Amino acid sequence: MIRDQTKGTDDVSGAAQPAEGGVADPAEEVDLEPEREIPEPAPPAVDEFAKACVRFVAARYGTMLDYTPDTLSLLDQWLRDARAELRVRAEAVEVVQSAAGAYLGEVVRRQFGANWVADGEVSGWRLCLSTVYCAFNPIGVAREALLLEPAEGWHAHLDLDPAEKEAVEARLEALPQAAEDEYYMPTTRFDVLWIVVDALRAGMQSRGLDDVRFGSDDYRR
User: Fold this and answer.
1) Phi-psi region of 85 (alpha: psi -120 to 50; beta: other; left: phi over 0)
2) Can you tell me the distance from the alpha carbon of 162 to that of 101, in angstroms, rounded to the nearest whole number?
3) Helix-, strand-, coil-residue percentages of the chain, each rounded to 5
4) How far apart are CA 28 and CA 220, in angstroms?
5) Which sign does the torsion angle of CA 151, 108, 69, 90 carry?
6) Residue 189 CA to chain centroid, in angstroms?
7) Whole-angstrom Cα distance, residue 25 to residue 70?
8) 157 burial class (0-12, 13-18, 19+ CB within 10 angstroms)?
9) How confident is the model over 149-153, as a mean pLDDT?
């Protein structure tokens, strides 16, 4: 089973289980190029958070984030640096996690095609992929990267159709285990998401469902 071993739940997590040793290299597992679709623009609140992340990173490192997957390593570094600083400025956690999570979600949205559900508290936000049935809260992912522990109630795990979990688990179980710090990083979560999307798309194609797309209403059922 792919689960958060520290909590004993059956939720599919965003990355391989942390352990001492190497970091997963999911790029070698990918067979299918996910389709890039952008069904809807990001909600204003998400867009503002993501743009704030771009400004924060540019001010700190002199580099502009451009919403491509290659920039996630810089997002990782910003979160690592912020983690140390938040030990003395705990009140800044909300700002950092919202900015980093929104940026991560926007990278995912552009890469795979997805729609945000951003109503109410940010802990309840979701990014819902359109080419496969898979949703999660990128801000929850950023929160876990800052805390280096599961963030209860923030839905950082991947929410999948129960019928699809077995195929996804089989793919993820073959990955090397990741060290704790890498386990929670956006780059690791993105790489694992790529593998999950690849597995789900392969399953859909084998069933003749390649043209099926999922909208926000499908995730509310």
Assistant:
1) alpha
2) 25
3) 50, 10, 40
4) 34
5) negative
6) 5
7) 15
8) buried
9) 94
Q: Are 123 and 137 in contact (CB under 8 A)?
A: yes
For every residue of 82-147, DSSP letters joined together read: HHHHTTT-GGGHHHHHHHHHHHHHHHHHHHH-EEEE--SSGGG-EEEESSSSEEE-HHHHHHHHHH
- At residue 8, the pLDDT reads 32
Q: Is 172:192 a contact under the CB 8 Å cutoff? A: yes
- Give the residue carrying structure tokens 């929670």: 184
Give kind and range of the element (H or E) at residue 48: helix 44-61
* Four-point Cα dihedral 57, 58, 61, 64, nearest 10: 100
79: which 2 tokens? Answer: 């979160």
How large is the angle between the packed helices 72-85 and 93-112, nearest 10 degrees? 170
Percent of the chain surpassing pLDDT 70: 82
Residue 46 predicted with pLDDT over 50:
yes
The residue written with tokens 């009140």 in the block is 91
Residue type, 123: S
